[in-house]
Design goal:
single chain; about 325 residues; mainly alpha; 12 helices; about 75% helix; about 5% strand; transmembrane helix; GPCR_Rhodpsn_7TM; transducer
């Protein structure tokens, strides 16, 4: 049971984060590869942002949206990894109730923002391929900035009720969370009251954000495919090459998210390791893979990375 500040047993003041259920002895060593992946994610995404910012030729909608994606990837991984390392290396499993709320809001709202940016990138590819003559007038840099702001506002607005819905719940059972960080699905299951409102709210958010965005992205690619099939082989190859990186980013983001949502909805065991692994994959794999995918598949970025590496090695020579 949990004793609140007023002495009753229905208000949580802190939670316990297990980390990796059943692997407590191995957590110390598992933290090293996880920390390495986190550093790779941060360095990779910072490199993308630096290259796009310093190369004037890359000041185009597609690359500006990519910078937004990289910034969100850094924030999403940073919202969970430092605390996760604290758990694995120093066994600091306690997280205060308000800190848990902040982390939960950050993770969920940033995910909503990333979904919106991926949708904006799909719209950019649609206009560039299906209406190339209008691309420069439709997606001006001020309009791209407004789309970025809209993504931030939308993600934050969708998650604004989340702290209210969690704070209204009484917690009188256990305070042990089965994950390495705070998730709405995990926290609400600890409540000793009806959580129907939270469940419905979660479904509304998933359908109105992730569901709608993925549907619109699919629809945009159907229109792109229809246009591309009417082009010459050379034009088809060029059009497909500009879309490959974005399609990979979409799959990298949505597949773990949908998988995690399904596991949470249908998993009955709280001590199961699968949801925890899925949750860690969801927060860490996209930030690691996105810079690699765009670095390998996007010629302009690949050339700048190679040039940056060449300059660094050249200047270090005696």
């Amino acid at each position: 049971t949990m004793v609140g500040p007023n002495g009753n047993e229905s208000s949580a003041t802190y939670f316990i984060l297990i980390g990796l259920p059943g692997l407590e002895e191995a957590q110390f060593w598992l933290a090293f590869p996880l920390c390495s992946l986190y550093l790779i994610a941060v360095l990779g995404n910072l490199t993308i942002i630096y290259i796009v910012r310093t190369e004037h030729s890359l000041h185009e909608p597609m690359y500006i949206f990519l910078c937004m994606l990289s910034g969100l990837d850094i924030l999403i991984s940073t919202s969970s990894m430092p605390k996760m390392m604290d758990i694995f290396w120093f066994n600091s499993t306690t997280i205060q109730f308000d800190a848990c709320l902040v982390q939960m809001f950050a993770i969920h709202s940033l995910s909503g923002m990333e979904s919106t940016v991926l949708l904006a990138m799909a719209f950019d590819r649609y206009v560039a391929i299906c209406h190339p003559l209008r691309h420069a007038t439709v997606l001006t840099l001020p309009r791209v900035a407004k789309i970025g702001m809209a993504a931030v506002v939308r993600g934050a607005a969708l998650m604004a009720p989340l702290p209210v819905f969690i704070k209204r719940l009484p917690f009188c059972r256990s305070n042990i969370l089965s994950h390495s960080y705070c998730l709405h699905q995990d926290v609400m299951k600890l409540a000793c009251a009806d959580i129907s409102v939270n469940v419905i709210y979660g479904l509304i958010v998933i359908i109105s954000a992730i569901g709608l965005d993925s549907l619109l992205i699919s629809f945009s690619y159907l229109l792109i495919l229809k246009t591309v099939l009417g082009l010459t082989r050379e034009a088809q190859a060029k059009a497909f090459s500009t879309c490959v990186s974005h399609v990979c980013a979409v799959f990298i983001f949505y597949v773990p998210f949908i998988g995690l949502s399904m596991v949470h909805r249908f998993s009955k065991r709280r001590d199961s390791l699968l949801p925890v692994i899925m949750a860690n994959i969801y927060l860490l794999v996209p930030p690691v893979l996105n810079p690699i995918v765009y670095g390998v598949k996007t010629k302009q970025i690949r050339q700048r990375i190679l040039r940056l590496f060449h300059v660094t090695t050249h200047t270090s020579d005696p």
